[in-house]
Design a protein that fits this description.
By secondary structure, the protein is an all-beta fold. The chain contains one helix and 26 strands. The chain has an eight-stranded antiparallel beta sheet, with no helix packed on it. A seven-stranded antiparallel beta sheet has the order 6-14-24-23-20-16-17, with no helix packed on it. The two termini are about 20 Å apart.
């Protein structure tokens, strides 16, 4: 299997591209090491949402995420929602909107067949590293390493904030054993209130209607809502089947380190986009304290390191 790495441009920003015979991924080292584009060559399909315009909408550190480019795949750490840390010795320290690292420049070391990114925390003492490489032509693997540089434990959320383009007749597949989800967000109010629990895959909504959550509705639904799988996943994977174009996208991750999954179908209800956010994460409910209160938090022990990965693979046909 051959791959290559080369400098490129994304809109008006310097970028770095890593490419196999099947996939082409473009990263922005100076803006969060964001994966701005992931292109599936056999179907000529851009998998990640692209923002409009020729100029990339940057934001300062601790800026408002949705006021920026808000596209592609950003790493969320150490939170998603803006909140205040309640742990010693950082009580009262603001945790930036959608985390710290999406707006920061990362270091880059480019090798012949891999990319190595790294960043240090601003308000909290940590280092986050990410390596991108192709283990096979059809799979891009991101390996993460997180180090606590302090003598104190730190509760955190890491989430893969992937804005994945949809097409009609797309199907979401979750592991056997998933039987319930918890609502956290809804544009129209039809999906219930924060904390409401629904059956998976067929949910009975507050108005009595039944919705099969596996099948993404058309853009004309004009809705956007978010839910988390209620408990830790039984296995570390999820899939999207594109029945119209006859291919499948799969995410794989180590369930011991990344046990939770957030899902946000955007069926035309936000910015006129038609996409789904798939968010494998170390802790649910968008902020460390909310996850801890539910007994589902993740903690980086003092002077410790943890590692995990996310593998994104594509395949022809929908049964993969």
């Amino acid at each position: 299997m051959s791959s290559r790495v080369y400098g490129s441009r994304y809109k008006d920003q310097p970028a770095i591209t890593i490419e196999s015979d099947v996939l082409r991924a473009q990263f922005l080292p100076g803006i969060g090491a964001k994966m701005a584009s992931l292109f599936y060559k056999p179907r000529e399909f851009e998998l990640l949402v692209q923002g409009p315009g020729d100029a990339y909408l940057t934001q300062p550190f601790a800026g408002e995420y949705v006021a920026g480019e808000c596209s592609g795949f950003d790493d969320m750490f150490p939170t998603i929602d803006r909140c205040y840390c309640d742990q010693y010795p950082w009580q009262g320290t603001e945790m930036a909107d959608h985390g710290e690292v999406w707006s920061l420049p990362w270091t880059l070391q480019a090798e012949r067949d891999e990319l190595d990114f790294g960043v240090y925390g601003v308000r909290f003492p940590y280092r986050l590293e990410k390596r991108a490489a192709f283990p096979t032509a059809t799979a891009l693997r991101l390996d993460y390493r997180l180090t606590n540089l302090s003598p104190f434990d730190l509760d955190f959320v890491w989430a893969a904030h992937m804005m994945i383009n949809l097409e009609p007749d797309a199907e979401l597949v979750l592991p056997d054993g998933v039987d319930a989800v918890v609502a956290t967000f809804d544009v129209t109010g039809t999906f219930g209130r924060y904390g409401d629990v629904f059956d998976w895959p067929v949910a009975t909504l507050p108005d009595g209607t039944r919705r099969d959550l596996r099948w993404l509705r058309p853009k004309s639904a004009r809705d956007a809502y978010k839910y988390y799988v209620k408990d830790a996943l039984p296995e570390g994977w999820c899939r999207l089947r594109y029945h119209r174009s006859q291919f499948a996208l799969a995410l794989a991750f180590p369930v011991a380190q990344v046990p939770y999954l957030g899902v946000l179908p955007n069926e035309g209800g936000w910015r006129d986009y038609y996409n789904i956010f798939l968010e494998p994460c170390t802790a649910p409910f968008d902020r460390p304290d909310a996850a801890r209160y539910r007994g589902q938090g993740s903690t980086l022990k003092a002077h410790s390191t943890c590692e995990w990965f996310l593998e994104i693979s594509l395949s022809d046909g929908v049964r993969a």
